Description:
4 strands
Amino acid sequence: MEQIDQRYLVQQNKISDGETKPPVFAKVMRSKEGVFEGVSFIKSKDKASILTIEEANQAIKWAANKKPNAHEYVTKVICVGQ
Length: 82
């Protein structure tokens, strides 16, 4: 069976905000050579990076290890179009 190539966004919600504020989305930073360097979270879903599942998992892992307040957020992978 052929695997379907789906695309994803990484979404974060601040735990203390509950459902009152909109989520933020991951924008992946890459070097000129295309090497992953990190993630910033932005409000614009349209400008967020569209990722494969492997890239999305890499972005989540990086954010959990490098962002000091990562424990204050719920981070999840969503399909493009959700």
